Amino acid sequence: MKTLIKGGRLIDPANDRDGLYDLVIDKRKVLAVEKPGKLSEKDVNGAEIIDARGFIVAPGFIDMHVHFREPGFEYKETIETGCQSAAAGGFTSVATMPNTDPVNDNRSVTEFILRKAREKGIVNVFPIGAISQGLKGEKLSEMGDLKDAGVVAYSDDGRPVMNSELMRRAFEYSKMFGLPCIQHSEMLDLTEGGCMNEGLVSTELGLKGMPTEAEDIMVYRDIALLLKTGGRLHVAHISSGNSVELVRLAKAKGLQVTCEVAPHHFALTENAVKGYDTNAKMSPPLRIDSDLEAIKEGLRDDTIDIIATDHAPHDVVDKQVEFNRACFGIVGLETALPLSLRLVEEKILSLGKMVEKLTSRPAEIFNLDRGALRVGDIADVVIFDPDAEYAIDISKFKSRSKNSPFDGWNVKGKVIKTLVAGKTVFSASSN
Description:
The chain is of the alpha/beta class and 431 residues long.
């Protein structure tokens, strides 16, 4: 059956479209994109009509950094609940980090993740394979076999690759396979025992801090290795202003370096930790005002390529403990849109640029056939109301976990519908 999404403002940066368009979907793909009144009777005959007047219609969002916890930690999140959370947040594609149990460092785990995702059929899941066996940083994984099995990148996220020789080889091999290496940039010898940003607040609270230099040094090392080896480096969840500048300089030299930022790193500072709220504990930690401003400038001038949530669900037993014992990370998929829209309200990004950083740019970096709505493309679509005001309520999250520092925040921007290959996988009206 055909679907006609009618009367919305279509923002499709990959095709330089921003205006009122009607969109027709048929047989999982985009059949037509036309100005209002231009569709033929044949195009719309018998179609289900979705009235999108007053809403934004865009390619489905793509999140290249999520943790779905399955296999191994299903009490925090399963592939099914993670996909439901993604759909509720307007994401039609996600890339899952390999720090599961067992680790996704071999073909069998990659195939398990892909099979589970296909069985549930909610959103597209793109596994990321481990750089090192068991995330131990000692021996490379079977990178070629992982690519054949379906991974779209390599990362030990959750842990950095500390061994410089191993990282050098990872760049060399990943270059052969045409996939990027995603680095969790952290020098562990500088952050051991740390649980928040090192600074005035950590001193006041009596908590061991994690200095920004731990991130900066690793970013600098990886860029230096990239100069020697070639390949592609993607810096995960950048949080330090100095790291943003290092990426900016590397790009100016023509190196293939990209980076992402998580919404909590442009929405919060270390002050959120006051009160020992474990929902504000993440890695890398929340930084200070000057880092936040540098991140916003990096978004403004495109040094920071994409927005990725670092969705890291944890059960209440992992968070309702002393701050220094709590797990790092927050649920991110269901708050990404309203937090990103704050950048538009602050005039850091235009609405089109925000959509680009959530759609076509991640598709481009990771070579995914998603993130655009030209005729013949897979019809992954999000419809959202940028002006809808509401208070974030974690009890309504689709994620199995509820750890978020944004509970109760008054925000603007609500997902109305999410469609994957033309099929509605989330509708606000049925929730």
